[in-house]
Design brief:
CATH superfamily: Flavin prenyltransferase-like
Helix content: 25-40%
CATH architecture: 3-Layer(aba) Sandwich
Order of helices and strands: EHEHHEEHHEEEHEH
Structural class: alpha/beta
Radius of gyration: 15 Å
CATH topology: Rossmann fold
Strand content: 15-25%
Number of helices: 7
Largest sheet: 6 strands, parallel
Distance between the termini: 17 Å
Shape: globular
């Protein structure tokens, strides 16, 4: 049997996209799945070369039936990371929608018992007083205030089986390292 890989899905958020790509660059044996919005945002933020530098296989959301999802059925992946996950993606996953590559990956990961680690970018760290400083295209930053419905959807998703939701990149990074270490043992 071929060595299992890490599946990593990116939705269309610029929030912590730079940090996500930095984390991806430190990992090996990863396949990256981009939503249509993620493919646009990566270019808009000027991060296409950063993604290419990771040298991971990249799959784009170009088929109506999300063909690449089929690799979950053959045991190709040990884990699914979705980072960054937009409030739209979180809402769809929390309510069982699977109408894009990213949401299909999540649904099928659950159905095949592949653990999902999700970085929900619309969360509020305790020290932020409700605001998140987010990178915008061309190095600008903006203050973002997650809506209550976004926070409620994150909480709902956090209760799903085989799903762990993280509110920041360091926690996600530590969880990935722990997961990879446990798999290597």
């Amino acid at each position: 049997m071929q060595k299992q890989r890490l599946a990593w899905a990116i939705s269309g958020s610029g929030h912590y996209l730079r940090e996500t790509l930095d984390l991806l660059a430190r990992l090996s044996d990863v396949d990256v799945f981009l939503s249509k919005a993620a493919a646009e945002i990566i270019v808009q933020y000027g991060f296409q070369s950063k993604l290419e530098a990771t040298q991971h296989r990249v799959y784009y959301d170009k088929t109506a039936s999300s063909v690449p999802v089929g690799m979950l059925y053959s045991g190709h992946y040990h884990s699914l990371v979705i980072a960054p996950a937009t409030s739209n993606t979180i809402a769809k996953m929390a309510y069982g929608f699977s109408d894009s590559l990213v949401t299909n990956l999540y649904a099928q990961a659950g159905k095949t018992r592949v653990p999902s680690l999700v970085f929900a970018c619309d969360t509020v760290p305790e020290e932020s007083l409700g605001a998140i400083e987010s990178e915008a295209p061309r190095q600008k930053t903006v203050q973002v205030y997650p809506r209550q419905i976004d926070l409620d959807n994150v909480a709902k998703l956090a209760n799903f089986e085989a799903t762990t939701v993280y509110a920041d990149i360091p926690a996600l990074s530590a969880a990935i390292a722990q997961r990879l270490q446990a798999l290597a043992a």
